[in-house]
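Entry 14. Ran structure prediction on the chain below.
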Amino acid sequence: MRGSHIFQPNRALGYVSNHIPPNVRYIDQRRENIVITCVGRSFHVYGCNSFRLIRAGRIHPENITALAADGFLTYVAVGNQIYGWRSSVDLRKVYRGHEKPVHLLLPFAKHLISVDESSLLKIWVVSTQALYLEIPFANNSFQISALVHPASYKNKILLGSAQGGLQLWNLKTSKLVHKFKCNFQSKVLQLEQAPAIDVIAVGLHNGRIILLNLKYEKVVMEVHQDWGPVTGISFRTDGTSIMATGSSNGQVVFWDLEEKAIVSTLVAHDDSVTGVHFLPNEPLLVTSSPDNSLKMWIFDLSDGGARLLRIREGHAAPPTCIRFHGAAGRHILSSAEDSSLRIFNTVTETLNASMGKASYNRKASKKQKKKSDDPFRMPQINYFTSETTRDKEWDSIAALHQGLVQVTTWSFDKRRMGELHLVPAAFQNKSENKDFSVIATCLCLSHCGNFVTIGYSSGHVERFNIQSGIHRASYGSPTAHREYVRGLASDNLNQFVVSGAADGLLKFWHFKQAHKTSVKIPVDTVDVGEPITLLRSHRESAMVCAALDDFTVLLVDLDTRAVVRRFQGHRGTITDACFSPDSRWLVTAGQDCTVKIWDIPSSYLIDHFRVTNMCTSLTMSPTGDFLATAHVDYRGVNLWANKSLFSHVTLRGLNPEAEAPLLDLPTTICEEQQDGIASQQERSEMDVDELEDAFEEINLDYNSPPQLSSELITMSDLAASRWQNLLNLDIIKKRNRPRQAPQKPESAPFFLPTVAGLDFGFDLNASNQSSTNGTGVPPRGQGRIIRTTETIDNLTPFGKLLHDAIVTEAYGKAIAYLMNLGPTMVDLEIRSLTPLYGGSGSFPVMTTFMRMIISMFEERKEFELAQSYLSVFLKQHGRAIVQNRELSKLLPELEKAQSSGWSLLEDKLLYGLGVVSNLRNYSA
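Output, structure tokens:
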């Protein structure tokens, strides 16, 4: 088994950029600049006009280590190989020869320069993929860390080292042109060509930026930034002498080259700035960062400063909880370890939105320039729940945070955090301390969207009004449970609340139990025997899923309050579970890195698959088309398509203890497009596929026999339209009759002879042969009177074939002739079999037709054709059959042959239905 029966990887959401510096270049055909960013094993191409994702690259065997591009190809370094892509999906070139991972790339006219971690510099001929030159360097003396081609320096490149030195090389002669005497005593991180000729900007690890004149080896300008290493350098080319430098703390510094001073600073990212690029001749700056964001800044403020123009971003840390929001299944709510809550759209990324980061004081957090150092930042959101009923009126999302007793509310409609921090009165005194002894552990929103019920580690279960934040009810006396409350659920009509805790008890409470009521006991209690890990509910079907600490999953019916299903098969703690929209499937994920799909009616495991990284959260679309998952160490949200909605999927029970197949996580592009580069495992699968294709080619000449066995009913291979409409021809003709009456053809001369048969025509040859003088008048002695002694034969072609079969009893030619006719001609041929009412047939021919049908039934071939032909025959000639004794004698034999075929077919169908029904209803 190669993969999942039900789900296949579709795509990933929320990936924008990582630590690899992006590449910016201009495309003449599009008339815009594009930005190429790295997202792990693939790369994205964004258009600067709208900042939309234009294309996504293919999937590489390993993570990308370097990016570069020229006017024709995009070069991607993956390990010790370099791939050249055209239009991001067409692999044109592959450069092999490095023994160490490549970390620097530079397109150089018709050549490509690459440098690996051993400081081996190779020059490739782009067109032929041949190695042009190879220059080795020693890491202990000159470890290459940066390179650039100085403008107007023909065939020359400038190399920077980790030791702080610079060297100028002529690649055509493979000689060292100049070794610069100045040693900066710090690692050279950036080399950038300045607008002035002969001037190169050098960015160092210690924060110094030096503008060096290569021709005279003279320092033109030297500045220093106090925010860490220089991670990027770029110059404005729209007539303003401004240089921008990026730092490792997320700030971008703008320097006035004429005044040699700082113009302004910009807190661009929460992490290091890996890319700083001014667009050519435009006041636009593009920055990227490992915080998974790409931003465009425009310089249009009154003081010359920059403001944010466009942004593409995702989570800066792996998601912790994801849920579909809304009945359309287009929005996914996602919380992550960076304390943020985001909205991902499954249709277009332009509708993605950020709801901000959780904060104790939102107003104070807005004043913080450096968001990553915000002292008011709340811990990460571990779990949240949402409802759409009151989206437009008040907060519709409630979230609990790691280690906090407070529960925050969020507004999906306003795309921001709410003002409420829900804390029971019993814990409000302790809420001033950061080290809480009681924390909120689980919660659920009522279906009406008015109330949120919260469970705590102390065993308390409290209910709040989410609009006002007022405490409404407490469950239990003094607490609902004696142990850690791990799950809550409520029904669709707000009648009951179900709580599950580490004591292994499921308790059912009246939802409207007031906090002033003296009687605070549960309506019912179910002991499941093991500590409960989590609870998930499906309100429409009144079912609750309870995962236990022994890796077992239980289904509890809210109406009967009984355990109705028990699923066992996981080998690790259950991390999350969800129901399909029709409540037929239960999808669970565990710490054993597996995702299992259980069929609830049959209690069978019908599908499972394994991933490399543990699934932390999953949710299924309300429309059932997607399964979304979040995984450890992955910042994106992965979508898996439900194959059962688009094709026929045969499901069967699987062994829960069997090994699940390993699947790769989805990427930004679809799985069917990931055939550009294959890993070793994928290549082995491709070999198997090629072998199977070869076998299929070998067996292409095999033709199935007309009938596999005489004991089986064999259907016809004719199109259904050739026989299904036979009984409805009158209705079809009436519906398709012409609007205008047919015009009468011109009358022919009376003396022209006609051809006998159904098709009206003139026999001109006979006329010419009979005439002697060309006038059409027969010679003397010959007349046009028909001799009564000659036999008159008015049978149709089909009637003639039946007439010949009266003696031979071979009906093959007649059946083949009838099968080649269309529905109208079949009806005409059968109608013409009778000698009555102006027909051209005879009773012996009708008898032969009935015997032909009997033979078709007995041979059990062309079963549905025989039924159709018999129906037309009985419909047209029923009265003639009753009146003729010979035809009436054949009716019992015809009925016996027809009923035997139907009995055989009915027995086979009923047997198959019985077996399927038994297997479906069987419960292990």
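The two ends are 23 Å apart (CA to CA). Will compare against last week's run tomorrow.
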